[in-house]
């Protein structure tokens, strides 16, 4: 999906996911957390897929993505049919489990 076509609910969901891992002073998310975020969104990726994504979205190996880049990456895994409320519920549950484990 084109990031420009994301619904307001999808943008809010992605912003919450981003903010959970954001390095506040930099307003960026560590690339090492992208796999975790995608998994929490119900879009788990293999290690090789994540490596391919990082080559594409972090070609200079900075180890960080800003929100616009993250949004572009995550938009690939969202569809128009996805219910933002259901995704938010799933995301909250995943964060709850992640907090217990991490």
Task: Give an overview in words.
The structure is a single chain. With 102 residues, the protein is mostly helical. Helices cover 58% and strands 6% of the residues. The chain contains five helices and two strands, in the order H-E-H-H-E-H-H. The protein has helices spanning 8-21, 34-40, 47-57, 67-75, 84-101; strands spanning 28-30, 64-66. It has a two-stranded antiparallel sheet with strand order 1-2. Helix 1 packs across helix 4 and helix 1 runs parallel beside helix 5 (84-101). The termini are far apart.
CATH architecture: Orthogonal Bundle
CATH class: Mainly Alpha
Which value, in Å, is the CA radius of gyration? Answer: 13 Å
Strand order, sheet with most strands: 1-2
Strand content: 5-15%
Helix and strand pattern? HEHHEHH
Overall helicity = 55-70%
Q: Please mark out the parts with pLDDT under 50 across 5 or more consecutive residues, or reply none.
A: none
Q: What's the number of domains? A: 1
Structural category is mainly alpha
Helix count? Answer: 5
Average pLDDT, to the nearest integer?
A: 83
Overall number of strands:
2
CATH fold node name: Recoverin, domain 1
Identify the CATH homologous superfamily.
EF-hand
Oligomeric state of the chains?
Answer: single chain
Sheet with most strands? 2 strands, antiparallel
Termini gap: 31 Å
């Amino acid at each position: 999906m084109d990031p420009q076509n994301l619904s307001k609910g999808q943008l809010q969901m992605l912003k919450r996911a981003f903010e959970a891992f954001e390095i506040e002073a930099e307003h960026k998310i560590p690339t090492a957390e992208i796999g975790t975020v995608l998994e929490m969104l119900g879009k788990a990726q293999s290690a090789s897929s994540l490596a391919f994504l990082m080559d594409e979205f972090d070609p200079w190996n900075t180890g960080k993505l800003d929100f616009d880049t993250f949004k572009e990456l995550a938009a690939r895994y969202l569809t128009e049919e996805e219910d933002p409320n259901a995704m938010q519920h799933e995301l909250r549950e995943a964060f709850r489990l992640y907090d217990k484990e991490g």
